[in-house]
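Instructor's aside before we start: the two examples that follow are unrelated to each other. I chose them only because their records fit on one page, so don't look for a connection. First example below.
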Amino acid sequence: MTKIKETYEESILKEEELEELLHKGDFYRFENMLSQKMMEIYDTTVSYFLEKVSKSVDFDERLRELANKLGLKKLSNRSVRVQIASGSYVHYTSMYAEQAPDSYKGDRLLSRLYFKIDSGASPEYQSRVSQLSMMTPSFAIAQDVLKHLNCASHPERNRNLSIDLGKRALENRVDNILEAQETLADKRVLIGIDGGRTRTREWKAESESSYREFDTPWREPKMLVISTIDDKGKVDKKRLPIYDTSFGDDELFAILKAYLQHLQINKAQSVQIVADGAAWIWNRARPMLVDLGVKEDKIIETLDYCHALQHLNEIEVYLPKTLPKTLPKTLPKTLPKAIQQKTMKELKEWLWAGNISQMKTLLMDI
């Protein structure tokens, strides 16, 4: 504490240059210099407390309990390096596990594990870097912004930390997005599922060019949205919907199941699934809901009208004018345009009204 006090007195209270900058009216440089000096005091303070806590008996006991829980053995003291919120590195001494189970992939520096310090970066530093890397056009620009805020960084380091945090956020996406007490109990739930289309970048392992080459294959991301509706069937605008996506069929339903389980979907008033005709959706939706405890009579399966209409338009040229009482054995493959349009209009009305049986009778006999 004495060192921290001395640092503050020498860097701030006795710094004549700070006063001189104000006398000159240079408030910009005054703030910038003061910010740098405060960062130095911040570094000294963090280093002091880390070293103090790491030497305490109680802290050692907590680390030994953590090691025992994880099956880590043969503990010894080692120097630990951590990048903190200022971007600087601080050092202190703490326990290291020299032996670990083959299945263990975590950090062996127990204090970093205990403090949830990943990739040698403090949570606050990783948060700052990742936010700016996401908000700015590039990792290099994120570095420039951080530098302006008197925070040291490096583009490649920013990239690695951001990717690492993104992976961990995805692994805990349900807990990160939902509130602890959030529930769908007594709600009319609407679940929309669909597939999209996007290009992805895949780097080639070898390239004749001096520049790295990559392919951009098409992939189909799967998307879901969970919302609630009122008694009139309108989406409840007072409640934010839940959106998520993945590239795998099974993966998306695993994510959806995790959300619904947390939200107590088994206590919902009703659950309506809306989707196109994709088999990967309908083969999984009802079994998943039943497995979560939703009663069969509370499940409503709704085929999206626009998607169904697209398929209906493809058979327009084969449709008769009306449904005759006795269908002839053979029908012409093409009919006059006026007949096709009138029949198409009737089929659209039947589709909208959900009169699938009448449509089925006609279409199967053509």
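Example two begins here.
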Amino acid sequence: MANVAIVYHSGFGHTLRVAEHVALGAASVAHTQVSQQSVEGIDLEALHAADALVFGAPTYMGSVSAAFKVFMESTSRLWLQQRWKDKLAAGFTNSGTLYGDKANTLDELCCFAAQHGMLWVSLGLLTNGVRGDRDDPRHLNRLGSSLGLMTQSDIDSGPELAPPVSDLETARAFGRRIAEAAIRWRAGQTGSSG
């Protein structure tokens, strides 16, 4: 059984919605246990027990949210102990505009994982670009990210309407990829197949 933990901050509910879809994708993979935690109430023992940690934060002013940054900085003692070394890591972000400097947020999340000695799992999807209907679930990775998952929510839309269907389907595909990687990684470490 692989254990995937999703750690997120959501200021307005959009990033939470993305986290839920990443979790649904991961949970759709057999032999995977998935948990979600907001940075406002972290259970560190659950994170220590996870095979893969997925970090999610909104992009505010071209960077991770302040609440997520507080969480990152709170892990410095864990860094000294190398508690998360050789765990898998991945990341996602949401912003109100198509670009919004989300790449910088993914870079921060990836660097944070690298500081902890973790191994990064990329999005692993070719881009479909922004052409076509953004509510068409076949248009995965419409924002063209490689490093991690990028989603976009119109600034004036509540989380019940945004991100669009294509971004949420991309989140599910990302969750499946992470769970499948965690199963392979765990099997390789234990010498078993599940």
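The chain has a mean pLDDT of 93.
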